[in-house]
Amino acid sequence: MTTSIPSPPIEWSSFSIGPLTIHAYALWILAGIFVALWLTTRRWKERGGDPEVVGDIAFWAIPFGILGGRIYHVISTPGPYFGEGGNPIDALKIWNGGLGIWGAVALGALGAYIGARRAGVSFTAFADSAAPGVLIAQAIGRMGNYFNQELFGGPTDLPWALEIDPAFRPEGYEQFATFHPTFLYEMVWNLLGAALIIYLDRRLDLRGGRVFWLYVMVYVSGRWWIEGVRIDDAVMIAGLRINEWVSMVVLAGATAAFVALGWRQRRAPDRLDRSQLAARVSHPEAVAGEDTHDASDAADTPGDGPDKP
Known about the structure:
mainly alpha, 5% strand, 10 helices, two-stranded antiparallel sheet, 6 strands, disordered C terminus, globular
């Protein structure tokens, strides 16, 4: 007896309410964003931060992240848009799926930085608070790929193989009915990774951006091997998909940053209690004699600045 995971009927990928078409992909992205905001707000409050600041920063980070994700996806997978038979206008149709995490994180971080500076809070403290929620949001967002029947792996007859309708099977794979469910692999990896990050953050007292870089390390290490399973079109370099190369480079950089920040923290341990890191910059009036930007810089740099609550 064989088993497999059925794909949702294609009719479930979207539905209409009057003249408005609602896409399942977009709904899963929104669900991930809401969960990330909830968890980030909770972690930010635990550090003494003003919960309203989270929404102010998200106002910048979310649209920047979506824009960056789409740009990277189109650049790294240009075929459907600029290849033979492609339609450049489709590059604007984000509801059809396709967000590159590298672009999303890069521009999303830029948006968060802008929001944090405008709010007068520490960007690194906020990034550390947001990191696990972002990973969970990525896990939830992968359900959009499941509903779109896209970005799956090679053929397999494993018990958890994913059934793909003939219309969505790539050229050369028409004779296969079941494929690796890479959406599921990444969901499980991300959820376990988020739990690990939260555990290590509490146990090891991570700060100063180390939680964020740990998030990057966890995600890209999983993305590297998952990319090797996928069979969708992608730019290839020396026999590897471009995202495999990016994963390796980013993993090396994130590991170096994580180790360097740990070394710096050991050399100049922060005398502030971790719960005060966000409060110190979210409520600058509590830091006598310092302006908002000075407080932010002090929280970003462990051991620098006066020991004030």
